[in-house]
C-alpha cells in the first residue's frame, strides 16, 4: 500500500537534523570543557553537630560520584578540582556515620585529603597540596537518589525504573527518560496526560465512545504498565488493555518526577506489551519544615492552586509527614461545561529503628464535569475534513466523573551496609458515576452536510488494582569483586466491573442526523435515557518470582542476568443487562438478561529472561547491549486443532552508549533498538464443531511485528545556568506477515519525534529572570483501514444504516511543530512569577486521526498560563 502524502516531510528532516546537531553539540561541549563549573542550589544547608550520625547508602564505584552523593546527603559544600578525582574509585559507604567519619572512609586509599573551611564547607585536595581555590559545589539532600525536588535540574542522580535498586542513568542498560520536578513546574504540568505528551518517544492518541480514554504508545505498542514507586497502579490488560476510568490521568502535584523505561519490562511487570513502563516517583517528607504554594490562571478560565506542606512531626525527626492539596477549575477550548479536578495526598515516614523505616500514605484524585478531551469528529464521505470550528464540543448535559483512591505502605529494613529488605503493598480503586457522553459518528454527505449515526452513551466503571512486592537487595564479594543481587516476589490482582450503555444499532435514539453546516452542540443530539446495556466483570491475576544480578566480570566489563517465573489467570464475563432488572424488554430488543460471553485465560510455568553486558569505557562513558522480553496471554484463542495458543512474546535488542558528566548533572544516551513481537493471534476462520465456552476458534499464532530505530536523549546542565531535556526518536515499525507485510502497524506513530525543553538563568542585572521554551515536533502520520458505507435502505427497519460495502481509507496528518515559551521572574527569596505560552503560533492540527465516521480530534489552540509560586 502506498502512503498518502509525502512521508519524508520537511519537518521530519528538520527534526532529525536538529536532534543530531543538538546532541552532538551538547556532547562535544561536555567532553571538551576542562574547567570545573559552579552549580548552586537555593536550598539552605543545615549546620549539623559534629557528632550527628547520618544514614548513607553510597555504592562502590567512581569517587567523584560518591563524593557528590555524600555532599547531597550531608548537606555540605564540597570544593574539589575534578582533575584530582579523575579515574579514582571508592569502596562506598553504607551505614551511619558522622560527616568526618564518612569523608575518611570515602577517601581511604585515594591519595586525597579533606579540610573543613567552616562547618558547612569542605575542600578536597591531593595529599600535601594546599587548598584549591574553586567555587563550592552543593547539592541539597532532596537531590539524593531518584528524588529531584529542589535540585533545579532537568535530570536525576538515579532512577529505580527497570530494576529494584536506584542506579544512575548511565548504570541502567536500558533506554530511560526522566522528567523532573523542576521541568514539571517550569511547564506548569498538572496532569498525567500533559507530562506524557512531553515525554520523548511517546505518541498520544485519544479514545472515543463510552471510555473517553487517552492511550500512550512507545515503539509502536501501547503503554499499559504504570507504577508508583515501583508498584503497579494500572489495570494493564483489562478491557482490551484500555485503562478505563481515568485512573492514570492523576494530578501531578503529588509526584516528584516521572520515569519512562522503553521496551519490554517483563522481568518486573509480567503480562504486558513490549512498549515500556512508566514509573511515578512520589514526593517524600523532608528533614525540615517546608511550605510551597502555587496559584495560576490561564486561557479558557483555567484556574489552579496547590499547597504542599512537609515537616518533621517529632523533635528527633523520627516521624515526618507531608500533605499536598491541589485543585483545578477549567473550561475547555471546545464547547462544554466546566471541569473540576482535585488531588489530595498524604504520607508519613516513621523511623521504627535506626535501620528500619515504615512509610504509609494515600491519595485521592477526582474529576467531575464535562469530558476532559475534545469531541471526536467525523469526515466527509470522500475523506475531507469538516470545515468546522475547533470549538465544536459537547452539550451541557455531557459528563464524565471519576474518583481514584490509592493507599500504600512500604517497610524497609537494613541488615547491614550490604543488605536491605523492602516490602510494599498498594491498593488503587477507581469509582465512576454514570457518565453521559455524546459520540459523533457517521460520514458526512458532501451536498447536504448531514451525517447519520451519532448517539449518546451511558457508562459506569468500578476498578481495583491490588499490588504486593517483596524484595531483598544486597551485595556479595565474589571473585574478589562486589556483585549486586536482587531477589523478590510480587502479586498483581486487577478487577473491573462495568455497566456500559452502548446503544444497540436498532435503538430509535441511534443514527441521529446532524447538520454539520449548522452544528450546535446543545441541540445536536438527544439524550439516551435508557439503562446501560452491557454488564461486564473482568479480573486478571498474576504472581511472580524474580531474580536480578549485576556481576563484575573483568575490569570495566559487567554482566546483568535476570529471570522471572510467573503464573497468570484471567477471566471476563459479559451479560446483556438491558433493560434494568424488573423492566420489560423494548419491542426492538432481541435479548434481555442473557449471558453473551465468557472468556477464561491461564498460563503456568512462564519464564522471562533478561540479559545485558555493560562496558565502562571511562568514568564518563559506558556502552551496553541488552536483550529483554515480554509476554501476553492468549490462551482464550484456539487453533484449528482445538489447542490454545501460546502467549505472544516480544524480544527487544538494544545497543547503547551512555554518558554522564559533571558528577551526574548532565546525562546523555543514544540507543539503537530492534523489537519484535511474535506468535500474535491471527484469525483463520471459524469452526462449527468448536463448542468450548469462553474460547474462540480458529486462530494461528503467526502474527509478527517489527519495530526498529534510534533514541537519543540529553538531559541536565549544559552550564551552571543552562538546563535542557531533549529527546529524539526515529521509529520504523512494520507488519511482517500476511497481506499487510511491510506496512506500518502503528501508522498513528510518527517516524520522527522531537521533544525539547530548555531554560536559562540570566546573570548580572537580570539575575532574577529565567527564560525557557521548547518544541514538540514530529513528522506526518496516518490511519488506514476499511469502513462500512451508508446504506439508505439498510438496517432491520429499512430506514438506513452503515451496513453498505466496505471501502478502504487512509488519512494523513502532516508533520507539525508546536512551540512553547516560558519566563520566570524571582520577586525575592520566597516568591516568583512565571508565564507559560503553549502552541505560541496557534498551530491548527489534529491530535488524533480516525475514520470517515469519527475519531478525529483537534489539538489545543494557543493558550497561556500565569503562575505565582512561593517557597518557605
UniProtKB/TrEMBL annotation:
GO biological process terms, semicolon-separated: siderophore transport
| Record SMART domains | STN (SM00965)
Where the record annotates domain Secretin/TonB short N-terminal, the positions are: 76-127
Topology in the lipid bilayer: Multi-pass membrane protein
Where is it localised?
Cell outer membrane
State the Gene3D superfamilies in the record: 3.55.50.30, TonB-dependent receptor, beta-barrel domain (2.40.170.20), TonB-dependent receptor, plug domain (2.170.130.10)
**Family, similarity comment:** Belongs to the TonB-dependent receptor family.
* Identification of the protein by name: TonB-dependent siderophore receptor
* Organism in which the protein naturally occurs: Cellvibrio polysaccharolyticus
